[in-house]
Amino acid sequence: MAGLDGPRFGAQPGRARQLVVVLHGLGADGQDLIQLAPDWAKALPEAAFIAPDAPHACDMAPYGRQWFSLQDRTPAVMAVGAAQAATALGTLIEAELARFALPPEALALAGFSQGAMIALQLGLRRRPTPACILAYSGALLGLDVLAAELAGKPPVLLVHGEVDDIVPVAASRMAEAALRAAGVPVEALYRPTLPHAIDPAGIEAGARTLARAFGMTAG
């Protein structure tokens, strides 16, 4: 799983002050979510964005990538897959921070669906912790070991559609409860008519969270 890469947007080395890593969902690739970068760049004009392609070809569709297989959805199996993907992603993040000469605290993680699972998996266990985590239509895996593995308490934004028929909204509600119980600051936005997707309200909430995390003002 070495050598992750993907589309980029925003500030170049020598000019970037933040790094935002955006993680796509199952059966997609980095091109799917790098489209969020222009909107979020209005709040973080000096940020570099990268949307890496997941390490594996999707085994549930003839196209796209996956962070880990969902053929077996046993919670323990999914948690192991997420942990393995997070390790590979961590290697990319270290390389990108070095390329942009940025400190670890300049990192923000965002993800959709399976990408949100990876953002939470890595972000809550990473030292130093990222400035914030944005998790759209995802789930928090490894709930039973979260307290033991929690490395810090970065602010988390959870956004989920209440009519999501791919990842039920209950997954984010469970994540919200677990994070609050662990003392992690959480903002949750539940969209009444939204399916498995990201809408303008969610994008705006992400911009506000990014701006606040880095001491900026969202435009």
UniProtKB/TrEMBL annotation:
<dbReference type="InterPro" id="IPR029058">
    <property type="entry name" value="AB_hydrolase_fold"/>
</dbReference>
<dbReference type="Pfam" id="PF02230">
    <property type="entry name" value="Abhydrolase_2"/>
</dbReference>
<keyword id="KW-0378">Hydrolase</keyword>
<dbReference type="InterPro" id="IPR050565">
    <property type="entry name" value="LYPA1-2/EST-like"/>
</dbReference>
<dbReference type="GO" id="GO:0016787">
    <property type="term" value="F:hydrolase activity"/>
</dbReference>
<feature type="domain" description="Phospholipase/carboxylesterase/thioesterase">
    <location>
        <begin position="15"/>
        <end position="204"/>
    </location>
</feature>
<protein>
    <submittedName>
        <fullName>Dienelactone hydrolase family protein</fullName>
    </submittedName>
</protein>
<comment type="similarity">
    <text>Belongs to the AB hydrolase superfamily. AB hydrolase 2 family.</text>
</comment>
<dbReference type="InterPro" id="IPR003140">
    <property type="entry name" value="PLipase/COase/thioEstase"/>
</dbReference>
